[in-house]
Design goal:
The protein is of the alpha/beta class and 313 residues long. Helix content is 38%, strand content 14%. The strands form three sheets. A five-stranded parallel sheet has the order 9-8-7-10-11. Strands 2-1-5-6 form a four-stranded parallel sheet, sandwiched between helices. Strand 8, helix 9 and strand 9 form a beta-alpha-beta unit. The chain binds N-acetyl-L-norvaline and phosphoric acid mono(formamide)ester (CP). Phosphoric acid mono(formamide)ester binds next to helix 2. The site of phosphoric acid mono(formamide)ester (CP) has 9 residues, from helix 2.
Length: 313
Amino acid sequence: MKHFLHVDDIDSSASWLSLAAECKKEPFKFEKMGKGKVLGLLFFNSSLRTRLSTQKAAYHLGMHCMTMNIGSEGWALELEDGTIMDQGKAEHIKEAAQVISQYCDVLGVRAFASLENKEKDEAEQVLNGFKKYAGIPILNMESATGHPLQALADLITITEHQQTKRPKVVLSWAPHPRALPQAVANSFVGIMRNNPQFEFCVTHPRGYELNPEIVRDSPVYYDQNEALKDADFVYVKNWSASSPYGAVLNNDPHWMITPEKLGKAYFMHCLPVRRNVIVEDAVLDGNNSLVIEQANNRTYAAQVALMKILESL
Ligand code: AN0
Ligand code: CP
């Protein structure tokens, strides 16, 4: 039984990419694979792309899909062991996960970082809780520390548009009024690290360092202009600081991506994006923006991840 929890679960980029291309060309080619299987999707947080693209991927594979906004419609879940449950939490994740697995064969979970407690976020309490107690394959639909389906869709998109053998890909931080998780950035760094055919670097203001265990030896620049030099793909994302954990330290509008900064490069963002905060209108509305193609590729990323899970059942 295989889970899809992390970019490291992509055992061969080449074979996953070629399967994604096959699915994109002929979406219903594997529609018998999921026949009779039920996919449950649990959302603790808002979603547009992940919810609809994963449902569409399930449809392509002949799976039945049940979606629940568990964060707003379900019972509040207790995650800690041994607690006296006399406060606000009505149900323990132990029962909830085991019950869900009576109804579903595969379970997708979206549960963002709390941004309040770094250790608990890094322990992936919700994702790992479902993995531990549900006993069925788990699909990560953005957890506290990662968003591997997004990273896979981004890899597909870059591969489709690359014009040279070794394009330069830059991950740039950009300002945002609210504290956002590091999950998208983490998984993008991880998938770039696993695909050394790209020249990759990260740029962010001081204080926004990502987890060094994830960044490893990827070059990091505090000077955005230096990092953006000769870029072919500029992947833009806000994330909050790691110390103090979850803080917004800097909202310097100079980090916003403008047509001048982008130059000839392609612009990428996972969406949702705040116009004229993260990126100027002219970039998003221009010919070099790949954001809609990234969103389209979410379907094929989810389809391939589900196929790998279904094959393992
Ligand atoms: C979320 C984040 O930054 O993790 C989801 C992105 C896919 N974004 C917001 O909350 C705006
Ligand atoms: N990119 C992404 O995951 O979008 P949603 O939060 O709308 O699912």
